[in-house]
Amino acid sequence: MSWLVNNAAGRLARAARPVCWPQRMVSRLDDMRQGDLFDDQPDLFPEEEPSYVVRVDPEEVRARLHAILGELRAASVMPWDAGKVLYWRTVAPQTSRWLPNEERAQLLLEFETEMRRLGAWT
Hints:
The protein is an all-alpha fold.
């Protein structure tokens, strides 16, 4: 047991000694030091408005939603897997926001009706 205590004490004494690095190691460590990470970081919250504008063609949106409705109307059983059903249940209402309100409401009603008919809407 005394050997264990002496050995542990020796390790502690060695750990407490100051580290003397050879000069060549010090210069290598200086070369490896990382620069300031935040020197050239761009501002995360700029004052100016974004320089782009999102433009969506309502005709493209309309055509895409009608194609989806056509696919659902032509099916006697659900043609999509669960992932695609979940995708379109999320995306169809968001996509239809680019259409006039009355047309949007009508397309979403038809979409929901077809999804219910095929058993994908509870």
